[in-house]
Design goal:
This protein is α+β, with helices and mostly antiparallel strands and about 110 residues long. The protein contains two helices and five strands, in the order ββββαβα. It is elongated and about 80 Å long.
């Protein structure tokens, strides 16, 4: 299945993304892609899209990722409502919620 998604190519603390068409099985970072369809620089808010190629790949059956879908709705390439995209919550380790060790915390010797 073909997917249109973001590929990060920027340096550390300088994100820059390419919008690419790739197979869903390829890894999101550094994987092979079929074609570059645009670019996105979140620091300077610059966006560049190849609208004709995006429409072609959508007509062939490529599915955009949720974030790319929202970008395409913003640029009026796709008509529709935006999709809610939530970041994954970071889990924090809290010492008070730690479970006691198995066996009640007592050391049992195997030798009698």
């Amino acid at each position: 299945m073909l997917v249109i998604r973001l590929l990060r190519v920027g340096k550390k603390n300088q994100p820059f993304f390419k919008i690419v068409v790739t197979d869903k099985k390829n890894p999101p970072r550094g994987g092979r892609f079929l074609e570059t369809l645009g670019s996105l620089n979140p620091l300077t808010k610059e966006r560049g899209f190849k609208q004709e190629r995006i429409k072609y790949w959508l007509s062939v059956g490529a599915k955009p990722s949720p974030r790319v879908y929202n970008l395409l709705v913003d640029e009026k390439i796709i008509e529709g409502k935006k999709i809610n995209v939530f970041k994954k919550p970071k889990t924090k380790f809290i010492a008070s919620e730690a479970r006691p060790p198995a066996g009640g915390g007592k050391f049992v010797s195997g030798a009698n």
